[in-house]
Fold these 2 entries.
Entry 1:
Amino acid sequence: MNKENKINKRFKKSNLNKSSWKSILYSQKLAPYVFVLPFILTFLIFFIYPIIRTSIMSFQDISIGRVNFIGLNNYIRLFKDSTFYIAVRNSVTYTILTLAILIPLPLLFAWMLNSRTMIGQDVFKSLLFIPILTSVVVAGITFRFMFNSTDKALANSLVILLGGEKIQWLSRRWPAMMVMVLLCFWRWAGMNTVYFLAGLKQIPEELYEAADIDGANGWNKFRYISLPCLRPTMIYVLTISIYGGLSMITEYLMLWGGKSSPQNIGLTIVGYIYQKGINQNNMGYASCVGLILLFIVLAINLVILRTTGVFGKERD
Amino acid sequence: MKPGNQHTSKLNYNPVARVAMVIFFVVLCTIIMLPFVSMILTSFKPSDQLMRDGFNLSFSRDIMTLENYKALFTNATYFRWYANSIIITIIQVVLSLFVSAWVGYGFAFYQFKGKNFLFVCVMIIMMVPFEILMLPLYIQINSLGLVNSIWGIILPYLAYAMAIFFFVQYLKGIPKDIVDAGRVDGCSEYGIFLRLILPIMKPALAAMAILIGVFSWNNYLWPLLVLSDPAKFTLPIGLNSLVSPYGNNYQLLVAGSVMSVIPLLILFLCAQEHFIEGMTSGSVKG
């Protein structure tokens, strides 16, 4: 009540102009725009403007104090740049491998944890989940030292224990890729398991009971009930995995301590943007790489949205 | 296990399968814990061991030492980073939550021109990895004079698309009558949000607080670009700066890494279900 009195007093004091301005601000017509204004500003300042800026820069040669318009030269150079193709190859390989591992295995874990046969579900779920709480920096440093090239480091001591020879993990292509994928698996397996577990729990028990009556076995129940019902979860996990795969950089920076990897075996597309833009201060060329990645990401998202239509359904 | 589903005549599970599955998960979780175990063990070993042997599981009483932690606890710079991380995380969580909830309310409870278009924009932001735009954003922050400032880190994430999306979904489940009742009682549009809606949103806010908090505590790439003054570093950047070619900081590196994980780990152990729910709340509910 006190507050209302104050507002009334303020109204009396202020002149007509001010109060009408206030009534407009407080009107139901304008209010929604006031509510979404922070988003509009964020969208314009920190999304649209940077995209425009980076598009312009991709046609420029930028060095300290000097900007030259060079047309398509950056793009022409990029398409002949073998390092760029290595970065694309690495990012795509990494994304495909993480998809191939981080969807079926967590799905299997979730299926097992959700089964009536299983006990201690919550404990195992929590233990699997803990790695996602570590920063990529700590996880990357840990993996870098676990996969050290010496024979006493954890990975090599296991390899030797199993009768193999020590491996130069971070200086050969496939072992290095394996370390990156393992790091991703270590951090994300629990998270994806929880997604699938949540999806499985939403499936009504009656469906399985009906299948039981029809004499369906475990595999058929999984194939014809669980899997179709998990479709939205599956699409979500797929989308964020592609996103994470194509935008990977910190793992790369950590595993090789910020230096470039031998023969660029670990270089990713975003890693290349960083290398060109920040390390070599070649913003124009880096922008070019960024824009190409932006188009790839948007195209993939569009395909996912068109084929699944999941967001279309979400809206109504 | 619902009592109704249990058959009294026989076990409704296969005991062999149960033992096999438990063993499977015990092995799996042990493997998942190995990096932590090796990190913690190494943090108690002399730092020249780290350079020579990396992380491993060897364990002997005679070489174990508290020297690394002694060095860490007497290192003022490390605690500066720790404090910076705590401050940035708290400010980012509070501001992002408020602004995102504010925007989310606008989307969920009003019909207005351009609403659908703007909501598509929210989803587009969610689809485009920040990393793609890091260079122009960096230039942007530079020209706004926000380099080396907390605001440079926080501003781009103030209206956090994922949180907005989540809040809109959450608010859709709340009856519109509350808002109408608020209007009848003479609340202003903003008063309705602050006094009626915000308190109802507590569970959603808690979930997003965890998500944004973990994100902010662990965020590396963007703060790395914004901050160049070592006194302003956050923990992840500071820790990484210890991996220098001159290598005399390794004793701080491992002990410091262990200490950086501990706050989240303690919070997680206290509220496991909330954490798991919060961290995965970005998911589309089917």
Note: Chain A has two domains: 17-74, 81-315.
Entry 2:
Amino acid sequence: MKKRSMYFRMITASLLRRRSRMLVALLSIAIGATVLSGLVTIYYDVPRQMGAQFRNYGANMILTGSDGRFTASDMERSLKEIPMEELVGAAPYRYENVRIHEQPVVGAATDMTGAKAASPFWRVEGEWPASDGQIMVGANVAESFRLKTGDLLTVSYTPEEHVETDNTIDLTITGILDTGGSEEDFVYLTLADMEKLTGEVSAFDVAELSVSAQSDVLSRYAEKIGEAVPAVGAHLVKRVTASETTVLSKLQALVLLVTIVVLALTMICVATTMTAVVAERRKEIGLRKAIGASDRSIIGEFLGESMLLGCIGGVLGAGLGYVFAQQVSLRVFSSEIRFQLLLIPATILVSVLVTGLSSLLPIRSATDVDPALVLKGE
Amino acid sequence: MSLLELKHIYKIYGELHALDDVSLKVEKGEWVSIMGPSGSGKSTMMNIIGCMDKPTKGEVLLDGVDIAKESARNLTAIRRDKIGLIFQQFHLVNYLTAVENVMLAQYYHSMPDEKEAMEALDRVGLADRAKHLPSQLSGGEQQRVCVARALINYPEIILADEPTGNLDEANEEIVVDLFHKLHNEGTTLIVVTHDPEVAEVAQRTLVLRSGKLHKEIVNQNFTGKIHFEDMDTFRKEETQ
């Protein structure tokens, strides 16, 4: 038998045949690893989770034409620079002066699905327009013209080159928009209806994008869009991105601080447990020294035991940590946490290192045991 | 050259002279008993011979090397290579089986060999108990595992401290028989004991008193069998 086989046989025997003793140590390591792994999972998932929350506050990137309006194809090419999974919503807007009951009103044509996704905070009494022939009016417009959902509304448009002839279109009001902002002064119709009304193919004044990414990443996307599509300029909505960054960095700092405190407490806890484990095995250490074990061998054996314990604790901690993080995420963010595969080996490694380091001091002191103690029959 | 030679050994703790000018020689293959009342210096002498302590003064020559001058690391190596220890309280590692306890001594010495460890257990009549943990063995069986562990690396000296102190009569007989066997195979034995019946089977008995070598009883008729004449005289003196 090789020395290494005997070494592993000894340390596994120590863990398996002294189960009740080792269970206490394992428990302290596993709890520490669980909390650590859970907190780190939350730490890394906070930007994503918070990003999703922040997206409720609307667009964080605006596209404008570099030289007037930009086309649907420009918009499409711009969106290609943003990963699909990060794009929460994209709403292009074309603004035209239209008339309702001979009164001028700003008509905003948009992709309703995109607008709904990019502006989830908009409160709509009734429904969003689901197809052409439908219109949503701002609350102020509705009040001025005494409009309500279900009404048929005639919208007129006077092309500049044909001032004498009006284009009109009849649309059904499906919803009244209440945002508390300037949007209440507009009417919202589909891009196709606007084309029908104006007789012109749609080109956009602006597009509102809601992207689930932090400001530094957003800036990168904006640069890429600027380079790839010269007709479009991408700008961050600083009001939103700056506050997102501030809140995120504070939250992450808080989680990091708690993680460091837990790490320190885990180390103290493991060191205390290992001190107790070593103390109750002084006789065994004395015996090993008496029959010829060098200090190095004893350190190696005890360190091996504690690191194996750390490894088992780490495996448990990685699994339980995910459950812990999931529960926190469900309760706090009401959404599932994203499982970080890399966190499994990382938790095991950290657990092994923490256990090894915290055991080092008590193990080193174990080598001071006088082997003569066992001969004295104490 | 003697295998072990103590030359004017002193071990002094403050005012206390645990060993006071003790000199003795043990030849290769000899069986020597050390007797004496509590506090006579037996344990101190055991620790010094077992390389677990150093004398305050004097020379301890083991195989010609003065172990009193060696570093702690070298003493560990000497203990590992030249000395087999047997304890009164057995001191087996409680989570290792009998055979693993024997292999532990091999592990620190050279290379663990399960077959050889099994043979050593067979020599002490415990081959069928090899896979048992110490808690599953009787006191006598544990002591026999301890003997197997002590002899596995073919040490120059087997040093036994009260080897029968915790055993009943039947097990005491088994252990003494094992010592006979080892002695017949040429092993040098130094046995510290309170028990005159264990001491008297040795070739020589050294009696310590107050840290000094009080008496040396040579068993002239030693044949590997028990002779009581000399010990009877000792017993009478002790009881007076």
Note: The mean pLDDT of chain A is 88.
